[in-house]
Amino acid sequence: MCSFIVQIGYGIMMVITLGLTAGGCFSEYWVQQENGPAHKGLFCPTSLADGKWSDPGVICNGWWDRMKAYERTVAICLFIAIVVQVFALVWNFITICACCCKSHIIHPLSAISFLNVVALAIAVIVFAINSGTAIKDFTMGLDGSVGASYIVECVALGMSILCTIAASLAICFAEKCV
């Protein structure tokens, strides 16, 4: 019964983590200009130029080719994290439904969660190391900072660490049949 309750909590936390990861990944506030309306997303930057918003269709064409190596690394790690999170939710659901063999099939859950932590940690660390360059390149010498999307990814990393702890706890309870 305890493993079931922990797995329900794990599922809720993983859904939140998935929402944070996807929301941060696809939002356009990775880098922002201080005291200004300009901001840049990971994939398609938009900015206010001459009082008009840039046409996203023009900016987004060839977006992968214009990304720097660290931006590609961050994007790939975030996509890997999203895929791993979906797989973790599916595996969690399967193990919740498995009554008699739960103690045998639940073990990969903590490894899946740890893989999620690794993918998010790489994305967060790589962007943190290169954020000075990203800010300088985007703001063209004006003051800028990392945006809310990066902070959301940091929160997702924290949530994924909590998910890994919850997965390990669920495994422990499942092995003891409690």
In terms of topology, how is this protein built?
Blueprint: H1 2-26, E1 31-33, E2 39-40, E3 48-49, E4 52-53, H2 56-60, H3 63-66, H4 69-97, H5 102-105, H6 108-139, E5 144-146, H7 148-175
Antiparallel strand pairs: 1-2, 1-5, 3-4
Helix pairs in contact: 1-4, 1-7, 4-6, 6-7
Overview of the structural elements:
Keywords: Membrane, Transmembrane, Transmembrane helix. The chain crosses the membrane at residues 12-31, 73-94, 106-129, 149-174. InterPro entries: Claudin-like. It is a single chain. With 178 residues, this protein is mainly alpha-helical. The chain has one domain (2-30, 66-175): Up-down Bundle (Butyryl-CoA Dehydrogenase, subunit A, domain 3), CATH 1.20.140. The chain is 71% helix and 7% strand. It contains seven helices and five strands; from the N terminus they run H-E-E-E-E-H-H-H-H-H-E-H. It has helices at 2-26, 56-60, 63-66, 69-97, 102-105, 108-139, 148-175; strands spanning 31-33, 39-40, 48-49, 52-53, 144-146. The strands form two sheets. Strands 2-1-5 form a three-stranded antiparallel sheet. The chain has a two-stranded antiparallel sheet with strand order 3-4. Strand 1 (31-33) and strand 2 (39-40) form a beta hairpin. The N and C termini lie close together (5 Å).
